[in-house]
Q: What sequence folds into this?
């Protein structure tokens, strides 16, 4: 496997310390904290899209490597580059955006929202809010970090004031969107309360509406063979990020035990194929044999001598 590099975001350090275009070593922990923030956000985004998966994919964290190879002028600019493994024998293509790319944008959106005294984005996993406390610890009065994203016209400003505002928002319980799947273990019809046990054994209480009563009761009666996939909102405790209770249910999907849930967030394969095809240079497409569709077996299995099988 070979490696390719792609710039995710550049950090521009502005302030008196950086006027000589040198990087003060004291700020390196901030870059490490930013990387941790990205990785943990990416992990939570993946978990939300894969509620039935108990573990992250193998080598998930290893695939999120970040490095910098240069310092650019303009105060001091540190481009953070992602290393991606690829097969040298395959046609070249631009890697599809994933959770780490989304995390970069989401963190930038969060900083902008706080700077304008707006709510943080709904899609930001609230469990990562406390991690902002370590990002910007070395900032001094009058200094800012500017995040420059490749397809964003204006940089995002991260200052001491933004960091302090984020700290205030993270020091308390919070609500977030959820998608849980599990077995209904109890139901209280008078109080419209129920509990659901997730695959990891965690039991979470919650509220349901009168319109949802029949589905909850049915799932409890058939708990040995039925599971519920619940979409809604839940209250989480700080700083552990553990769900305390489900506060509202927007949608319930009944599943047979062992059934794999349909993931509506996954893009259609034809859409991905078109995007990949569009990222391949025309000169590379010109190398593809014109009769490939008719003689696929020949091109795949012909021996080194070039025999027609």
A:
């Amino acid at each position: 496997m070979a490696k390719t590099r792609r710039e995710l975001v550049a950090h521009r350090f502005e302030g008196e310390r950086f006027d000589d275009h040198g990087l003060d070593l004291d700020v390196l922990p901030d870059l490490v904290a930013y990387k941790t923030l990205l990785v943990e956000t990416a992990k939570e985004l993946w978990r939300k899209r894969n509620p039935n998966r108990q573990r992250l994919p193998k080598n998930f964290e290893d695939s999120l490597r970040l490095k910098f190879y240069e310092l650019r002028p303009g105060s001091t600019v540190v481009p953070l580059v992602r290393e991606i493994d690829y097969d040298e024998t395959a046609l070249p293509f631009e890697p599809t955006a994933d959770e780490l790319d989304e995390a970069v944008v989401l963190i930038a959106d969060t900083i902008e929202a706080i700077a304008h005294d707006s709510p943080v984005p709904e899609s930001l996993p609230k469990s990562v809010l406390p991690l902002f406390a370590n990002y910007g610890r070395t900032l001094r009065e009058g200094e800012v970090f500017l995040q420059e994203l490749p397809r964003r016209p204006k940089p995002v400003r991260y200052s001491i004031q933004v960091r302090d505002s984020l700290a205030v928002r993270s020091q308390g319980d919070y609500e977030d969107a959820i998608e849980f799947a599990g077995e209904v273990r109890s139901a209280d019809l008078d109080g419209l309360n129920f509990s659901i046990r997730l695959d990891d054994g965690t039991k979470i209480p919650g509220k349901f509406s009168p319109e949802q009563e029949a589905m909850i009761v049915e799932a409890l009666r058939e708990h040995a063979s039925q599971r519920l996939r619940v979409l809604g909102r839940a209250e989480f405790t700080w700083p552990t990020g553990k769900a305390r209770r489900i506060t509202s249910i927007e949608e319930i999907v009944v599943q047979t035990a062992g059934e794999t849930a349909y993931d509506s967030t996954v893009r259609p394969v034809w859409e991905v194929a078109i995007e990949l095809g569009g990222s391949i240079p025309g000169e590379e497409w010109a190398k593809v044999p014109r009769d490939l569709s008719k003689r696929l077996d020949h091109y795949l299995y012909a021996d080194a001598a070039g025999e027609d099988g």
